[in-house]
Amino acid sequence: MIHQNRINKLLSQLDDNALIIISTNPEQFRNGDVSFPFRPHSDFFYLTNFQEPEAVVVISNHQCSMFLRDKDPAREIWDGARLGVADAPDTLKLDQAFDINQLETQLTHLIANDSVIYFDAKPCELDAKISTLLSDYNVNSLQAPLHEMRLIKDQSEIDTMQRAADISISAHEQAMKSVSPGMFEYELQSVFDAGFVKNRAQHAYTPIVAGGKNACILHYIDNNQPLRDGDLVLIDAGCELNCYASDITRTFPVNGKFTKAQKAIYQVVLDAQLAAIECIKPGVSVHQPHKIATQIIQQGLESLGLLSPGEPLTKFYMHGTGHWLGMDVHDVGQYQHNKQHRAFEKGMIITVEPGIYIRKDDKINSIYHDIGIRIEDDVLVTDTSHQVLTGNLVKTINEIETLMS
Ligand code: GLY
Ligand code: MN
Ligand code: MN
């Protein structure tokens, strides 16, 4: 069933004659006849709750129409059941439905003389076709109002994201309990693969399972090296459940015990992360967590003699402290208004993920070489404060060593 309340809220922010056109994602082929599992487009799914490929929704104040694949018994033997045009209006609560093959002939009939059209073309064949059909019209972007709505999560979205977080928490705990020296990174990844699939979830993004120096490669996804005694392993893995993401990073010792040097760096990252989370509440600048995290990491690395006063921190910490989280792991929504950092509002969900990455360098004491640590949690802004959706996952040095012992 379509989300009529979301559609109404969106329409209420647009011209009375607004006509919204949104298509879902195309099916993507991996090679030959093999396709990737289908994932609807987030904007489309947010409004329609419809999971089939090859669909376009057309929304005005008067009616909601959908173009979709019609029933096709021969194709359904191969690809599974389709809702079909005849059942779509009742099942989805639409005013009317059309065969997607009639898009060319029918779409322009839904456009009135005074329609104000909203359409954002994605780079895909279907949207290229729609763009051609709209070539004689003025077309506006829907992104600002729609993505602002997606940025503020309602209770059902928060509940789904909490379930996604819980599934990811269990897998991270299982990984900490399963790891041992000599295991390969991909074997540890398989804990997440299994943990997600058995909960009808999937990876929200390609997981990072990075032992030792691999943790200093920010987007390491090879996950094919052995895990060594004495090294840390950084795991950035989170599941997507019903099109909502979780995003968690934990870093822990392969043999269950942090070395003194690993402890020192870990504690700096943890202090930064806890302080950054602590500042989150409505009214506070969304830049504040990064400001706090960088200050604490700068001071921490200076007291360990790894940075001289004033030396740029970007040598060891070169990414932001967080991003919006929702249907997309790097979710939609502006971080600034009029070039100024905006303030947190109730219902936003942001990650907090500071890190320190120390590559081998003759100028650095070798006990710190190849240490890469990131700690990442998912934080909901509440009425007056915040709630850490991933707060049930162990995080302090003691908690991790105890769980692993
Ligand atoms: N896992 C993606 C990120 O942390 O941004
Ligand atoms: Mn993240
Ligand atoms: Mn992450």
From the structure above, extract its key features.
single chain; 405 residues; Creatine Amidinohydrolase, Chain A, domain 1; Creatine Amidinohydrolase; six-stranded mixed beta sheet; three-stranded antiparallel beta sheet; globular; binds glycine; binds manganese (II) ion
Strand numbers in spatial order across the main sheet: 6-5-4-1-7-8
Measured as a percent range, the helix fraction is 25-40%
Contiguous uncertain segments of 5+ residues: none
CATH architecture of the largest domain: Alpha-Beta Complex
Classified in CATH, the superfamily of the largest domain is Creatinase/methionine aminopeptidase superfamily
CATH topology of the largest domain: Creatine Amidinohydrolase
Query: Cα-atom Rg, whole angstroms?
Result: 24 Å
- Quickly name the level 1 CATH class of the largest domain: Alpha Beta
Largest sheet: 6 strands, mixed
Distance N to C terminus: 48 Å
Number of strands: 21
Please count the helical segments: 12
Task: Summarize this entry quickly.
The chain has 405 residues and is α+β, with helices and mostly antiparallel strands.
If you had to describe this structure to a student in words, what would you say it looks like?
- This protein is of the alpha+beta class.
- The chain has 2 domains: 4-150, Creatinase/prolidase N-terminal domain (Creatine Amidinohydrolase, Chain A, domain 1, 3-Layer(aba) Sandwich); 152-404, Creatinase/methionine aminopeptidase superfamily (Creatine Amidinohydrolase, Alpha-Beta Complex), CATH 3.90.230.10.
- It has 12 helices and 21 strands.
- The strands form 7 sheets. Strands 6-5-4-1-7-8 form a 6-stranded mixed sheet, with helices on one face. Strands 9-12-13 form a 3-stranded antiparallel sheet.
- The protein is globular, with a radius of gyration of 24 Å.
- It starts with a helix and ends with a helix.
- The model has no long low-confidence stretch (mean pLDDT 98).
- Residues 247, 323, 351, 353, 376 line the site of one manganese (II) ion (MN).
